[in-house]
Amino acid sequence: PAEKDFSARIESFELAYRMQSAAPEALNIDAEPDHIKKLYGLDNKKCTHFARQCLIARRMVERGVRYVQIYSGGMENQLSWDGHKDIEGNHRGFAEETDQPVAALLSDLEQRGLLGDTVVIWGGEFGRLPIAQKGGKPGRDHNPHAFTTWMAGGGVKGGTTYGATDEVGFKAVENRVSVHDLHATILHLMGLDHQKLTFKHNSLEQRLTTITVDARVIKEILA
User: Fold this and answer.
1) pLDDT at residue 136, rounded to an integer
2) What are the C-alpha distances in Å from 165 to residues 22, 34, 92?
3) pLDDT of residue 2 exceeding 70
4) Do residues 170 and 129 lie in contact, with contact meaning Cβ atoms separated by under 8 Å?
5) How far apart, in whole angstroms, are the C-alpha atoms of residue 72 and residue 77?
6) What ranges in 27-86 are assigned the alpha helix state H?
7) pTM for the complete prediction?
8) What is the spatial distance between Cα 139 and Cα 91, in angstroms, rounded to a whole number?
């Protein structure tokens, strides 16, 4: 009982071993039937890279992994969604890479009875300005005032749009949602009350959704 640190270290080593022994099987997408590989787009060079990520994500969810994060355009191939130039070509290319695998992930989770218990979130840290940037094939600069996040799966009302921008897409003006609201909503979908996740740090109360603003759960998007 007095050796809590030692026991914790042993548990971490045991967890690492279990992960290493389970990972090869979980990551072996070659074991998937051909129709599933085709569903995700593994036979399409334009989306093979992201298709592998989505298929691995489904295999992890299927095996009980509680949190899975995958990236599109995270500079892993020297490209990103950061379209400061040629935004049309940039976004068109990433749409071709991601549309089929993402749709496949959602339909595959649903067919396996997993989507109802899985919250799928797609988003980034900002949007793009409605004005052109640079000459030639123009891009668009960052826009922190208006952007979109979509959610699907467990507890989310499908086919719902919430919020709107001004007429040029510069600022969110209707049903604005803060990052804290988004966090509160995600926690709610996970069965957690964000107000109860409060802890003291340096004698100050802290929480993910902060204590200085009234973060709210966006009930309008809940099923």
Assistant:
1) 84
2) 46, 43, 23
3) no
4) yes
5) 10
6) 34-40, 48-62
7) 0.87
8) 10
